[in-house]
Amino acid sequence: MFPKEDHIKMIPGDELRIIHKADGIEKLKMKGNIIKIGVNDEIYLEIKGNFKVPTDPEIRYTIEFVWKSTAYDRMKTALRVFLKDE
User: Fold this and answer.
1) 64 forms bridges with which residues in the sheet?
2) What is the pLDDT of residues 25-77, one digit of tens each?
3) Stretch (H or E) spanning 37
4) Helices (H), 1-86
5) Long-range CB contacts for residues 21-28, cutoff 8 Å, separation at least 24
6) Residue 35 confidence (pLDDT)
7) What is the domain partition of the chain in residue ranges?
């Protein structure tokens, strides 16, 4: 479950990074793509690879969004074309 905030909008296809640290040492780091957002705002994440994920409910994770620059790259390309177009 992810806290619901107005400035955060997640959709299937977004990429998340999950990090688990213990005693300041990074124990686990993996990336996954959101495949589904459930009725109760549960996030279903598909993670590729072989990870031995800890199942202890006391373990805390850090979740980070992975920024994809696709829209930004398209805007830069369009501006370059506009600049060169007579």
Assistant:
1) 17
2) 888 888 999 999 888 878 898 988 887 777 788 888 888 888 888 888 889 99
3) strand 25-37
4) 70-84
5) 21/62, 27/54, 28/53, 28/54
6) 94
7) 15-84
